[in-house]
Write a structure and sequence with these properties.
Blueprint: E1 17-18, E2 22-25, E3 33-40, H1 52-55, E4 60-68, E5 71-79, H2 83-89, E6 105-109, E7 112-116, E8 123-125, E9 131-134, E10 150-151, E11 158-163, E12 170-175, E13 181-186, E14 199-200, E15 204-209, E16 212-214, E17 227-229, E18 236-241, E19 248-251, E20 256-265, E21 271-278, E22 298-305, E23 310-325, E24 337-342, E25 352-356, E26 362-365, E27 372-373, E28 377-380, E29 390-398, E30 403-410, E31 420-426, E32 434-438
Antiparallel strand pairs: 1-5, 2-31, 3-4, 3-32, 4-5, 6-7, 7-8, 8-9, 10-11, 11-12, 12-13, 14-15, 15-18, 16-17, 18-19, 20-21, 21-22, 22-23, 23-24, 24-25, 25-26, 27-29, 28-29, 29-30, 30-31
């Protein structure tokens, strides 16, 4: 079995429901909902190889941990019911399944919970992780959508893009709070590029046209996804008014940005964009049949001056991090706090860090060597006023028992012991992104 199949990354082979858990500490009484994790889990039971480009295409599996009234009341996992799943299960002749693979993210918008793919069609799920099929409320998204659309917490609007390796290579759109399309425009780019995330402010949207692009000759060498670093490709920020208008292309130093922290309009008239930045990514080796080890990402800030058409950029810290999250009620606004996982090595995710962007200080929750953890998810306390008043939920894989546990951390004091720890007696494989779904009441 390949090394990526072992320990935290190994797929699980079944679907399971659990209702009894060992809990230490006290689960906050007003945490009522389900933490959902999304990620690739091959139907074959193993990954083809250990590089991330072989990881991405595998079948979507959701994991849900439900908390109610101070108790952990359930865990379940389900493969998303796609055409690929149906073919594997011998039900491929049915026309009820969709040709998509939403294995990256989960969002809630307009009355639907959407499992999102990397540019493909999303599928609707419910809080019990059942697949309900194609979206009805968001028909514009059936054309495909990024795995990281952004929702304005004030207006409820959803901003998205679709980056494709077939023309048109890039489209940007806006949906209102009810899922109705209010804008759909094609954005001209010289060639298709790898775009994973985006940012919004209260007035603008920011897309990332960077130095990782497509090389279709890679198919002939057996690559499943033909993307790689391209020295001759200029890295640029695409900044445009939210509802359409003049597009500003801002050149930046060559880089790759997988995930955005946040963006906002600053009082001095500039746009601040915080990201996790890599100096290179997916750089092919000398033979061209594989990749060099990826460098690790660090917190980076761009200060964009649209009048001058420039972006001043600066590294904010030297700690290697990934999968940044904020209090999402501050999306597009000036946020002070940021939560991310620490990444000591390319194949290792261990520890959670909280940044205070005002003071520059950081606080860390440590995870034992050999163990690994998922993306941290911030949940505000009910009726909270302060940005950091809430909890951080993180799933931690325990190597000694080959199981996972959910840790509930005080978002203001990560270095203290968890508020509560829920031992699942089951392993949740390392995946991509997750979401907290409040109880439907």
């Amino acid at each position: 079995m390949n090394s990526v199949d072992m320990d935290a990354f190994a797929p699980v082979l079944d679907e399971l429901d659990l209702s009894s858990f060992e809990v230490t500490g006290e689960i906050p009484f007003d945490l009522n909902g389900t933490l959902v994790r999304n990620g690739p889990n091959p139907l074959s039971g193993h990954f083809e190889s250990e590089d991330v480009l072989s990881w991405w295409p595998e079948a979507a599996m959701l994991h849900g941990i439900t908390l109610t009234g101070g108790k952990a009341t359930g865990y379940r996992n389900r493969w998303v019911r796609t055409q690929n799943w149906a073919n594997h299960k011998g039900d491929g002749e049915s026309n009820q399944y969709q040709e998509t693979n939403p294995n990256v993210n989960v969002i809630s918008h307009g009355g639907e919970i959407l499992a999102l793919a990397e540019g493909g069609q999303p599928l609707v799920i419910n809080q019990s992780l059942e697949t309900l099929g194609a979206t009805v409320i968001h028909p514009a998204l059936q054309r495909g959508v990024t795995a990281h659309p952004k929702i304005d917490p004030g207006t409820g609007e959803l901003m998205y893009f679709k980056a494709d390796w077939q023309a048109p290579w890039l489209r940007y759109g806006v949906l209102d709070a009810a899922g109705r399309e209010t804008l759909d425009v094609e954005i001209e780019v010289p060639a298709p590029s790898m775009m994973h995330d985006m940012a919004i402010t209260e007035t603008h949207s920011i897309l990332l046209d960077l130095s990782v692009g497509f090389d279709f000759s890679m198919f002939e060498l057996g690559f499943r996804i033909p993307i790689c670093w391209q020295d001759n490709r200029q890295s640029r920020l695409c900044v445009l008014p939210r509802h359409g208008g003049e597009i500003h292309w801002i050149e930046i130093e060559p880089c790759f940005i997988q995930h955005v922290v946040n963006a906002y309009n600053d009082a001095d008239g500039t746009i601040v964009l915080d990201v996790v930045r890599y100096p290179t990514y997916f750089t092919r080796n000398a033979k061209g049949d594989g990749f060099l080890p990826n460098p690790l990402g660090v917190l980076w800030r761009y200060r964009i001056d649209l009048g001058k058409g420039t972006a001043a950029e600066s590294q904010m810290d030297d700690l290697c991090i990934e999968l940044p999250r904020i209090n999402e009620s501050f999306t597009g606004k000036n946020n002070r706090y940021l939560y991310a996982l620490e990444q000591p090595a390319d194949n290792m995710m261990r520890g959670v860090v909280r940044y205070d962007l005002l003071t520059g200080s950081r606080d860390c929750h440590k995870v034992d060597e050999g163990d690994q953890n998922s993306e941290p998810v911030f949940i505000p306390r009910e009726n909270s006023v302060d940005e950091d008043d809430g909890w951080v939920l993180v799933c931690v894989y325990l190597k000694t028992t080959n199981t996972s546990e959910l840790r509930i951390l005080d978002a203001r004091d990560l270095s203290s012991s968890p508020v509560a720890t829920i031992k699942l007696g089951r392993r949740i494989p390392a995946g991509f992104h997750g979401a907290w779904l409040n109880d439907e009441r």
